Amino acid sequence: MKQILVALAVVFTFVACDKNETELKNRLQLSLDSCVLDNEHSYIEVKKLSGAGSLQVMSSDPDIADISYDEKNKNVFYIIGHRTGYTSITVIDADDNTTGADYAVKTIYVNVRESISYEEYSYQTVFMKKGDFRIFNLPFKFDKNDSIVGANDYIASVSANVALGNQLKVKALANGKTKFKICKGKIDIFTIYINVVNEYDLFIPESENNQLTFDLPFIVGVNGISVWRGSGQYTARVVDETIAVVESITLQNDHFNQQTNSAVVRVTPLKRGSTKLLVTDVITKQTASVNVVVH
Which residue, 86, 95, 108, is CA-closest to 33? Predict the structure, then answer.
């Protein structure tokens, strides 16, 4: 009888241990229970160390600090600071294997001790030839808390760091389109789109150059159109040269981030009438037309 009791005690001990281990494994545990955020540390990563189900995370005041989920790991999320103040993050671990009645709740206390600034900059689009290596200017200095997201793929390789300041290095690897973002913490502040081509396509923006209009006698005013992009070798002619003629084609000193062989085509009006200015890229054989109207 005594031996049976001992055996039952051992079995009970094993069962109790297994139950305790299961409960410990299913108990919600997070990597932290409080944090302080500022401009130097604008966000913090939180990991679920243990728990039975999927996480549901809510901020009591998103204006002070809000939440961003990790796209690759469902057990990781980020607390992102914004406005000065205190808030709390509620984390619910719902056990998907239950009827919904069983869940665990944890609270993370957040102190944002200074207002965190996230400046936003207009996006840029750049064109590069395959195989080119160029340095571009950023509209800000790269900070130690900044990071590049989605930068290096088979189309282009991109690098920026504190030592480079407001400069960005780009290597064009293969034809195609790609983009990357620079983030402060987890917030996007700047996006750049990269187009890698064999040869720059002829581009005359219609919004600026859809028509050249002259009043005779022409003394002063706009007498040219801009070629924004192309091979750098252009010809131009006016269809009806009794109305106007091409005066000159001048290559421009490109804006630092837009080194795409820009040029200005200037026209001299001769008499009243309407015709077209034709610009041709000698290398790509592309042609663009602009209306010319002389009053």
Answer: 108
